[in-house]
Structures are given as structure tokens and as C-alpha cells.
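Figure S7 source data.
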Amino acid sequence: MEFRGSHILSIDQFSRSDIDVIFRTAREMEPYARRQKITRVLEGATLGNLFFEPSTRSRISFGAAFDRLGGAVRDTVGFQFSSMSKGESVYDTSRVVGGYVDVMVMRHPVEGAVREFAEATHIPVINGGDGPGEHPTQALLDLYTIRKELGRDLNQLDRTRVAMVGDLRYGRTVHSLTKLLSLFENIDFVFIAPQELQMPEALVEQARNRGHAVVQTTDMHEGISDVDVVYVTRLQQERFTTEEEAGKFLGYYVLNNAIYEKYCKPGTILMHPLPRDSRHGARELDEDLNHRPELAIFRQTDNGIPIRMALFALVLGVADRVHETARDAPWYVPEKIGVHDTK
Ligand code: NCD
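C-alpha cells for the predicted N-carbamoyl-L-aspartate complex:
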């Protein structure tokens, strides 16, 4: 695809070779993402970061990625603080904000709303999550993490076994990741969810039609026992009609250190898009796993920076100019960020 001037709305718009372009660009961004170098390639440009649903990491990481390219960020958070609460349409908001900024990121609780927003402007729009729909940048950073953690090249993903656990019905990250992995060859998917929260049939069909093996099960212990990656997700309580309905599934699956040691093959990589629900009664990915080097969740969040930097540079047409303004970063950066970081 031609990235310059494009919206990034769904994994459906990418071909296999587009993923190579994004990952190659992301690798170029690593020294800037890791605060070893500074670039000013987007000096003077502004990002409109529009988040109409709760977010910590996506909003901050889109903003930080833009900062690291030398640009400025304007945020708006929550309906109650925006004119949408006064009845302004998606179309009007899109045209108005488009007049102020050079690229926009939007998260919205309604599936398809980000597309509607993008259709009203020639300013590039990036989907930061649309209801239970998609979260394409999360899938890209997830695959970037899988590739790095397994030390496999993108063309060596054949027979990679990926288990996804939890709320596969409403979790947009697993929808986008399934679509993205389906672009490759011979992936073995294991979808582990309660019957009612299984992966949407259309995505299962798509994966099967492209020649991938798909197993669907409710049994987590069996499902995680022979895979390379276990990708755990949170129950998307906010997408259920009643709290009671959601409550039936809270704590349905708990993956903790004892279960990991009993059932997982040594070296199985643990991922989660985060936030993990650490409240009593949930704990789908227990904190007693924090010391394990296989727990990749924070390397995963770190990888959001180079991926989002790459997407901004590509849609704004500066990917080949990033190094022109490069210089060393002079400030103190610790070797490891988290107290349990092993790499
Ligand atoms: C996810 C999301 O918002 O879809 N978070 C994220 O962006 N990393 C996952 C979630 O909320 O469960």
C-alpha cells in the first residue's frame, strides 16, 4: 500500500509486504525509542490524540512516539470533556480537529466510528481501538514482540503455535492479531475461551480458509500445554449489557506461576495487551509470574513506541528522513526500566 497520507484503520488493509515495511521502519526507530538518540524529523507537526474510552498505555505511547519524532501532542480524553457531549457529530469533530493537527489517533467505544471519522478528512487517522472492532497498532506491536521473543524472522513463522485465552469475543486486540497472523503461513491457532466468548466465527473461517490450523477449546490447561506463545486477555466487562452477565466469566481463567510450571512447555512466551485485571477474583495473568523471563508483557508495551513511531513516519511521508536530524541523547537512561526486567 501507499502509506503516505493513508489512514490506518484495520489489519484488512495490509498485505504481507506492508508488514515488512512497517517492521523495517520500526527497527530503524529503535535507538530513538530507547532514548539513545534524538530525531526532530516531525518538528512543527502536531498529533491530535482523541481518546473517547479509557486508556493509559495506548494514549501515552502514541503521544510519546510522536514526541520522540520531535512533534507536539494535543490530547482530548473522554466524551464529557469534548464537544461530542454537546451533540457534535463524528463528521464535524473530524473536520474541525483536522484543521488543527497533522495526524489524528482516535479511540471510540463504537465499532466503525473511527472509520466514519476518517472518511470525513484527508488528514491521516489511526485507529486506537474502536469498541469490540479492531486495534491494529496493538496487533502490529504484538507480532513485533512475538518475532523478537521467539527470535524468528517474519518468513520463519511457519508452525508457530499461538494460544489466545480469555474474552475472544469482545477483545479487539485478539481480533486484529488473528487477522494479522492469518497473513502469514501455517500458523497454529489455539483459541481458549468459554463457549459464549469464543472468537467470532468470521475470523475463525478466515484463518482456516487461508490454510491455518485452528483449535477451539474451553480447557485452558490443555490449550496452553504445547504452544510457543500464550496471549492472555482481560474480560471486557464494559462490553457486556449487564454487570451480572459479565460477572459469570470473571476469574474464569487464571494463569499463575504454578499453572505455568505444571502445564507450559519450558520457554513458552507469555503476553497480554494489558491492562491485566489484578483485582481479587480476576487475575487472569497473576503477578506471581513477574519474575519469569518468559513474561514479555512489558517488553510488549515498550515495543509500542517503535511501532507507532514507524506508522507516524510512514503516513506523514518522512520514514526515510528520520536520521537526517539525529544526534545522541545526553540524559541519564537506566539500563533496565523495571525492577524485575530480565532483558
Ligand atoms: C486493550 C484495549 O484497549 O483494547 N488495551 C490496550 O490498548 N493495550 C486491551 C484491553 O482493554 O483489555
